[in-house]
Amino acid sequence: MVTGLEILLLALVLAAIVGASRVIQAVRPFIVNAIVGLIVLFLAQAVFDISVAITPVALLIVALGGLPGSILVILLSVLEIAFV
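Predicted structure:
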């Protein structure tokens, strides 16, 4: 026989799954932007021999800006303004 406690636990687990799904859907674009930006930074270092300091600020710019953010970080590094 199903008790009230079991129904409550089932409802809580279902709510946690729905909440986790929404969080993952909200964070997914930032993860994709960060991966694309880091690949661009890696290719800039490997192919063009550009040294870019990977700092938390650079990672934040790349994660939020994606490809344009990584180009900005590379440009600032080449011009020796930041991320040297």
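Summary: The longest helix spans residues 4-47.
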